[in-house]
Design goal:
9 strands, five-stranded mixed sheet, 2 domains, globular, four-stranded antiparallel sheet, Alpha-Beta Plaits, alpha+beta, Sulfite Reductase Hemoprotein, domain 1, 219 residues
């Protein structure tokens, strides 16, 4: 999966390519920024775009330069292809936001680590928010969470923001960090065992029924 994405995404001009390095939760540091700036100058990359998935897209790379850019960046591929975790987006949460009630960045990183190494039937997107304002867009992601200071996490499943838009269903509420993580792990295993090939969660959840899913997970 990563190898094909590493080859780059052919652009509209049919001549140049885009690559998407992995930047979990959209977090960047000075070293990454310096590398991106250096390769953009060195290879005359015309566009560096922040995507809706909190990733960086370097657009307009010549075919012969694609692998050289990867080598200079020294970053993992952030645009997986096919049935796997595609990304985890997150708001800043209690790390910096004055409205944050839960540590969304820490939870998002744990879920990225978990789901990156979990078999999934279809591409899966995750959104994590540190308060009910839902800046992490969890209600329109395959799996979503939002947190409240005194009530813990609410877990949402089956959302989608694409052509077949769907508001996700609440799977469980008032969960601790550990309970929310364990539930998502169990849900991912249930999804993998019961979904059709390449069946996205916005189709899987209404087909099975949220009550049946809760029953199967002992909620």
């Amino acid at each position: 999966m990563a190898d094909s994405a590493r080859e780059g995404i052919l652009q509209r001009d049919k001549e140049t390519y885009a690559i998407v390095p992995k930047t979990p939760m959209g977090i960047l540091n000075p070293e990454i920024l310096e590398k991106v700036a250096a390769v953009a100058k060195k290879y005359n990359i015309p566009i560096v775009k922040i995507t809706s998935a909190q990733r960086l897209a370097l657009v307009g790379i010549k075919k012969d330069d694609v692998e050289k850019v990867w080598e200079d960046l020294g970053l993992e591929v952030g645009y997986p292809v096919g049935a796997c975790l595609h990304y985890v987006q997150s708001c800043p949460g209690t790390a910096v936001c004055k409205l944050g009630q839960r540590d969304s960045l820490a939870m998002a990183q744990k879920l990225d680590d978990l789901l990156s190494n979990t078999a999934l039937p279809a591409k899966t997107k995750v959104g994590v928010s540190g308060c009910p304002l839902n800046c992490g867009e969890g209600f329109v992601r395959d799996i979503g969470l939002f947190g409240k200071k005194d009530n813990g996490w609410t877990v949402i499943v089956g959302g989608n923001s694409g052509l077949n838009a769907r508001i996700g269903n609440v799977l469980a509420e008032n969960l601790s960090d550990e309970e929310a993580f364990d539930l998502i792990k169990s849900f991912a295993e249930y999804y993998n065992a019961n979904a059709k090939s390449r069946e996205r969660l916005y189709r899987f959840v209404p087909r099975i029924g949220i009550d049946e899913i809760k029953k199967a997970l002992s909620i």
